[in-house]
Amino acid sequence: MQNQIWAEEVPGTAPADLVNATLDDLGNSIIGSFAGKTSTLSPMIRKYVKVPLVVIAGSGDAAYESPLDGTYGRVLQSAIPFNTDDAGSYLQSIYKSTGVEIPFGSGSWLLDPESGVVTFYDLTSITGVSAATPILATYYRYVGKLGAATSEQTAAAISDQELTFTKTIKFDGGSTTVTDDALASIVLDDRDLASMPTSTPCMSLQIGGDSDGSWRLVTYGGGGSATGTSFEIQCRVSGTWVTKSSFTPV
Predict the structure, then answer these.
(1) What's the mean pLDDT in 110-132?
(2) Contact present, 241 and 247 (Cβ < 8 Å)
(3) Looking at the record's lineage, which domain of life comes first (predicted)?
(4) pLDDT at residue 213 above 60?
(5) How close are the terminal C-alpha atoms of the chain, in Å?
């Protein structure tokens, strides 16, 4: 688990505008660049291609990290885990200094996303990797905001998702000591019903799926009149919602 919390949601697949990027943020070749290329679609994601690493002293040439750059710091830290996308769009690649790729599994190498360290757990099984011939790395990195997400960010992240609850949901938002507007605990639709056309329904409370035999409670607009709104109890019959009872303010 990361000690530094990523406050912005990482997209499930690597941003399309970075897949074939050839230039970095400064307009230079992306290969070997510590500047990397930042996505315009998902600005919290930056891509790096064949960034040169340096050996970590005392590791016996088995561990490597990005050098401490005066402008960009250690750019391998906060690398996005390869399994963020099961389809592999965030896969990390490691190369010998000659540019020859070291396949995953060869030398049993592993990139720790948080520390930004590549470790070879079976270095003796490969050749061409040493302090004199350090490796190169291609990967995606998180460069967004750090810290716990705000309540607004959390709400925005789930606002367009369908939620399924497996436990009883209890609401305690309304007051139980008054009879005015503060009594409301759940508000399904906060539009002005009176101003809506009489043929326009509000969001409904539905019991059952979209199949015959299901029920729902729904209200309709008043066509410009507060007394024109209606509250209806409907049942789904032969694929159509049929009104069984209807109530109006007067």
Answers:
(1) 95
(2) no
(3) Eukaryota
(4) yes
(5) 60
